[in-house]
């Protein structure tokens, strides 16, 4: 986006009340007049610093004048604005548009929260199911002789596993030991 288009987009923001005070506008005009390359001639600088005209009128005329002159002049205005009123420069609507990320880009922080939004209870429940399945698979393996040890572990776990689940597990282990 060219600086002239940005300036046209920011014109209402800059000319609204109490955005720029008279001292800042004078500093910007002087900088555009005195710094190389000279953007404003001495006559133009005097015109835009005239205290008889209202600040709103002078600033509007200055911005329109810079837009007519071209992109380089608008760019120098933005540089002067950044030097003399950095907070206002950072709050410009065109700067906010430039700072917004690409809408097709994935926000990794947001994606991380979306994947982990279930919390620790969900994780513990999934882990418990996986551990229970692993224990059953290990106990059902005919090559291992740990059914007695598994029965002791399940017998001492009424707090960890519910009473009904524990009874089902013990019945299953007894059936396995008979076979």
From TrEMBL:
The keyword Transmembrane applies. Pfam families: CARD (PF00619). The keyword Transmembrane applies. GO terms for cellular component: endoplasmic reticulum membrane; mitochondrial membrane. It is found in: Endoplasmic reticulum membrane; Mitochondrion membrane. One of its GO terms (biological process) is regulation of apoptotic process. Gene3D superfamilies: Death Domain, Fas. Residues 38-96 form the CARD domain. It is a single-pass membrane protein. Keywords: Disulfide bond, Endoplasmic reticulum, Membrane, Mitochondrion, Transmembrane, Transmembrane helix. The chain crosses the membrane at residues 120-138. InterPro entries: CARD (IPR001315), CARD19 (IPR043574), CARD_BinCARD (IPR042146), DEATH-like_dom_sf (IPR011029). PANTHER family: CASPASE RECRUITMENT DOMAIN-CONTAINING PROTEIN 19. Associates with BCL10 by CARD-CARD interaction. This is Caspase recruitment domain-containing protein 19. It comes from Sylvia atricapilla (blackcap).
């Amino acid at each position: 986006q060219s600086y002239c288009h940005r300036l046209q987009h920011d014109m209402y923001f800059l000319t609204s009340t109490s955005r720029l005070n008279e001292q800042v506008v004078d500093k910007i005009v002087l900088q555009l007049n005195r710094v190389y390359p000279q953007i404003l001639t001495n006559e133009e600088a005097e015109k835009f610093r005239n205290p008889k005209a209202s600040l709103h009128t002078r600033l509007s005329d200055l911005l329109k004048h810079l837009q007519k002159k071209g992109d380089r002049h608008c760019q120098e205005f933005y540089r002067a604005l950044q030097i003399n009123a950095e907070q206002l420069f950072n709050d410009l609507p065109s700067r906010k548009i430039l700072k917004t990320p690409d809408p097709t880009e994935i926000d990794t922080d947001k994606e991380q929260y979306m994947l982990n939004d279930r919390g620790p209870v969900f994780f513990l429940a999934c882990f418990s199911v996986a551990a229970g399945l692993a224990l059953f698979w290990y106990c059902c393996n005919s090559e291992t002789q740990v059914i007695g040890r598994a029965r002791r572990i399940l017998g001492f776990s009424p707090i960890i596993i519910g009473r009904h689940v524990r009874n089902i597990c013990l019945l299953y282990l007894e059936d396995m030991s008979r076979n």
